[in-house]
Amino acid sequence: MRIYLLPISTRRTLLYCQKIDAPASQKQTWGDWVQSKAARTWADWEKKEKGWQKKVVNYGNYAFRRIPYEEWGLKSVPPLSQRRKEVELNGSEKVEVVYPKSLLAMDKIPKILHTLATEREALHRKRLMLCFVGMPLTIPVGILPVIPNLPFFYLCYRAWSHYRALAGGKHIQFLLQKNLLTLTPSPIVDAVYANQKQPLASTPQLTTTTKAGPDSEDFKIFDPSNTEVPNPDGETMLLSQANGIKMTQALDLPQLEVELERAIWQVETAVKKSNEEASGDNPSQDMPKPDEAKSQEDKKSQ
User: Fold this and answer.
1) Which of 210, 237, 2 has the alpha carbon at shortest distance from 103?
2) For this UniProt entry, which segments traverse the membrane (predicted)?
């Protein structure tokens, strides 16, 4: 597998794991089969023009976009099975960490990975337990004959999501403890950042509050060759949506596009909200709800 560290702002970095194609002889796990089945079902529902399936997809996509990009990133890391552990310890599978050397110093990479793997661990455990507690409470909804028990399935999904994030974090911690990572600076990634047009959104103050997270010294991202660090006390965006697309094209990773789009949107929203609060303005609505978005599209078409 291959891990990418892509700075979104001067204080936040997206972690994404690319799964290298497995041998044809390797059997598909039960978890992979369930995930593939759910993805196919969701894709079929997205093709519906109307009906409750289409509404579920609209609200589902709206909710998915608000799941923190850090959680999505850890979920992209496969759980550490016994077979995978043996393969990685034997050195028969190389685990690369691809990063831009113009923004991230090599000696900081292990600390950044450790922080990303552990900073939300307690949160995921707590919410995993809350999902398990809430599941039995949704059983009465299943009595309704019209639609399936959506609250129950949502809690199941969130429980699985938190479990996978925890498992992904544990896998990264294992790789760090056993020194199994190969750090690989990428000229391709550096070139995309170098071609990013300025200025990008920024804030004069911090927009994150987790003490062990991106506000720590290890997460302050800057160009080592540039003595003039832009906005050192606040947070500055490093990627726009347009350059996020260029990044996926340059790396030939189309599956990365939705991850980058979500992460950039979330960080941009946080920066915008911080600026509005600092200026005393009322926070603007960051994204219309599904029904509101549809009504806006209808008005434009009229």
Assistant:
1) 237
2) 128-147
Whole-Å CA distances, 137 to 56, 134, 140, 156, 295: 21, 5, 7, 12, 34
Give the pLDDT confidence of 206-229 residue by residue, as tens digits: 776 543 344 444 455 554 444 344
Domain ranges of the chain: 2-301
Residue type at 128? L
Q: What is the DSSP letter of 183?
A: E
SS (H, E, C) the chain: CEEEEEECECCCEEEEEECCCCCCCCCCCHHHHHHHHHHHHHHHHHCCCCCHHHHHHHHHHHHHCCCCHHHHHHHCCCCCCHHHHHHHHHCCCCEEEEECCCCCCHHHHHHHHHHHHHCCHHHHHHHHHHHHHHCHHHHHHHHCCCCCCHHHHHHHHHHHHHHHHHHHHHHHHHHHHCCCEEEEECHHHHHHHHCCCCCCCEECCCCCCCCCCCCCHHHCCCCCCCCCCCCCCCEEECCCHHHHHHHHHHHCCHHHHHHHHHHHHHHHHHHHHHHHHHHCCCCCCCCCCHHHHHHHHHHHHC
pTM given for the model:
0.81
Neighbouring C-beta atoms of residue 279, cutoff 10 Å: 7
SS3 46: helix
pLDDT tens digit sequence for 84-106? 898 888 877 789 999 999 999 99
